[in-house]
Amino acid sequence: MPREVIDVHTHCFTSPKHTDRVREGLAAAMAEGLIRMVVVGLVNTKLDAEQMWGLIPRYVDNRGDPLFHEVDNLLTLAREHRPTLLPFVDTRHLWGGDVKTRLSDYMERGFRGLKGIYLADDANDMKLQSVPEALGISLKAYHEREWEIFGYAETHHLPLVYHMDVQHYADVASALLKDFPNVRVDFPHFGISRKGLGKLLDRYPNVFTDLASMLPYIRKSPKGYREFILHYPEQVCFGSDAFLYEAETIVEYIRVVEELELPREVERLVLSQNPRRFLGKAFGD
User: Fold this and answer.
1) Distance (Å, rounded) from C-alpha 273 to C-alpha 285?
2) Which residue among 10, 139, 143, 242 is least crowded, i.e. fewest CB within 10 A of its CB?
């Protein structure tokens, strides 16, 4: 049986004028078994470039829209590279209006799922500006927005990738899952804390995590990560955090999974079966 790889966590930061570069990177990854990849696209309906950068890591090389409004670029690229690219809308800059209506508009345009990042204060692991500060809203309003995002994902059976330090913000993570126990949510990067994440994985079978951006840590401590995956074989997904114009970097993440020498069935779960369950209907035909 040919290897099947589904990446649940990559980013856009490019445009159709770079579609040849995208195609080259995808070809390299597809030669190793890639069949689908979630690509997250930012939205911006109000903020200037400086305000947008407040919620974006400085290592990002933006080759797309200078104001990071990636909706049109990503949907065009997804059509050009159908069915490989699965567009997800990034909600960190979601501004004003009714959240449900805004998200429904994006879903109707062709997005398949949602991405969020919990940035309630300056203590976040990304060292980014807080969303309340960046958008000029209260913490209460921010929490109301995030609760609406989780509620929308659960109600509409949409996969949600949600970056969060689940140990540092354990009370918020627990409260969200208590209110939305049936949401399919991926807390990427092993939840920033395997210890904190384990408590959620034990309690909620529809909570997932992924390997995105963890390559150096896994190679530094392969035994610990291998044991964690073996303990939660049905909840760890393959992810890379690759930028769309560098899709070939996905191959290095496939290699690190191989290096863990997982049992064949567990490797298959991580590379494709768990991502399929997480994505649900968003996987497409």
Assistant:
1) 15
2) 139
Which residue type is seen at 238?
F
Domain ranges across the chain: 5-283
Per-10-residue mean pLDDT of the chain, 285 residues long, equals 90 97 98 98 94 95 96 98 98 90 97 98 94 95 97 98 97 98 98 96 97 97 98 98 98 98 98 98 90
Contact 39, 87 (CB under 8 A): yes
Distances (CA, A) of 241 to 12, 245, 282: 10, 12, 19
Could you list the beta-strand ranges (E) of the chain.
5-11, 34-42, 85-90, 113-117, 160-163, 185-187, 207-210, 236-237
Instruction: Give CA separation, 94 vs 13, 43, 153, 273, in Å.
Output: 17, 7, 15, 31
- How far is the C-alpha of 65 from the C-alpha of 83, rounded, in Å? 23
The answer as to CATH 3.30.310.50 being correct for domain 5-283 is no
Please state whether the predicted TM-score (pTM) of the whole model is above 0.90: yes
User: In this structure, are residues 178 and 143 in contact, taking their beta carbons and an 8 Å threshold?
Assistant: no
CA gap 23, 21 in Å, rounded: 5
Closest by alpha carbon to 74, among 60, 61, 85, 66?
85
